[in-house]
Structures are given as C-alpha cells and as structure tokens.
Predict the 3D structure of the following.
Amino acid sequence: MRLRETPVPGAWVVELDRLGDERGWFARTFDAALLAEHGIDFEVVQANASFNARPGTLRGLHLQAEPHGEPKIVRCVRGAIWDVAVDLRPGSPAYCRWHAVELTADNRLAYLLPSGVAHGFQTLTEDCEVHYLMGHHYVPEAATGVRWDDPAFGIDWPPAPGGRTIAEKDRAYPDFAP
C-alpha cells in the first residue's frame, strides 16, 4: 500500500501493492501503521457501502460538522466513479479548492479524506458499488453539505450523457458563503 499526496492537504490517493501468483493477487487495503508514519490517525469505526444503478448518479457533497468530522477512505469495488473532495477547512491553504480522482474496480485506487473535507462522487458506469471505511460514527444532526454545482468551487464534473440523478437534498444546499 502506497500513499500519494494530493493538492488538498491531508487527502491522499491510496495505491495497492499487489502480490500475485497463479491464484490471483493479494493486497493490503488498510494499514494503520503506514498511515501513522504519514501523520494520519485513522481508526475505523464503521464501514459503509452504496450501490448506484445508473451512470450519472451524483451523491454529495457531504460532510459532518465538527466536532463530529468524518474522515473516510473510499473505494469503488464495482464500476467507476469520479470522486471529489472539497476542502472546507478555513485555515487550510487549499480552502475552497477541490481535487478529484477516478476510482474504478480495475484501478483499485482509494481516496483517503480528512474531516472538514466535503465528499461527493458521480458514477461513470452503471451498477457502481462504493465502499467506505469511516473514522467517525455518523451523527445525523452533524450531517451537512454543499451543493455539487456551487460556483464557489467550480468543480469540473464529467459529462452525464443520460442526465444526472441527484437527491433533492443535495440539489437544495444553498450557495456557499465562505
């Protein structure tokens, strides 16, 4: 397992080191000691999954307000997604900037996101399954988000030829006010 820095401080792309033979391959997908070597304290307290039948399904941009910040590690285990992080930490040098990674079942990448970073994704194929390791329990009253198309961020989402499927609550977030 290797970590690759991104322009969002504390957000990392996780690359698997596969060990293969005639049976297939094996790879470590989580290593607390390696994360600690990079200054990341991540304790898995929940694991979640989402299934998305249609391409163009957009979920997010979600986060939990402090002190219930929700660090996560996201992998697409079936299909392909465009996974986006928006830095909403006021003291961060990347405040209000975004970064995206294509996560696919084939490339086996993961995206590690710190708390204070909004997360969302758009499916690129049908029948996508996304798996999350969570570093904080879900607290419904701390759940919040920002709108996926807010001009404050200017996210360059991929085209969705058949249109986007977006939950009404995700469409209804107000304009972001820094």
